[in-house]
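Annual report, structural modelling task.

Input specification for the coenzyme A complex:
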Amino acid sequence: MERVDAGPDVLIRPMERDDVDTVLSIESRVFTTPWQADTFLSLIGRPSSELWVMEHSVAGIVAYAVLWCILDQAELANIAVRSEYRGQGFASRLLERVLQIAEGRGIETIYLEVRASNTQALELYERFGFSQVGVRERYYDKPKEDALVMRLVLL
Ligand SMILES: CC(C)(COP(=O)(O)OP(=O)(O)OC[C@H]1O[C@@H](n2cnc3c(N)ncnc32)[C@H](O)[C@@H]1OP(=O)(O)O)[C@@H](O)C(=O)NCCC(=O)NCCS
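The model returned the following structure:
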């Protein structure tokens, strides 16, 4: 299995089926409409999906990201960091790795949707060069909110 050293205390590796319970415990705390186990389980091992976790030597899984790839386009479908571990660059390191993976697969454009009020995520994406290309009005539930559509051109 491919493992990538992401610093002294963390490594980035593909998500495995045994990781899903831990991922769900983060997912359910972070999102008001969390993905269910079946979603993660059905994506693991699919050639069109990239699911990666960041594992801390002491704390275990602290972050994860999911990318869906279609031909030369991809969607960053999910990224989250356990709340206690935010603000230390973990999402940045994970996203950097995911973008490298996308590039390696020949992806040219990555899209994502983000809640309009999610300033932490917006700042992260803007630092990586994503820019807003559209709005999906009232896209999210709990609470109802617009999604900003962002795009990054890799090539
Ligand atoms: C958005 C999210 C993934 C960011 O995770 P994170 O690990 O805190 O992100 P980072 O640490 O890489 O970056 C956050 C900030 O920490 C700063 N930072 C980076 N490395 C740092 C370090 N070593 N020490 C201190 N701060 C650091 C960054 O500069 C960044 O600052 P900014 O927000 O002012 O630009 C996280 O807040 C989260 O999981 N949110 C809930 C889920 C979510 O909204 N996901 C996105 C859905 S679209």
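The beta strands are 4-5, 10-14, 49-56, 60-70, 73-81, 109-115, 131-140, 145-153.
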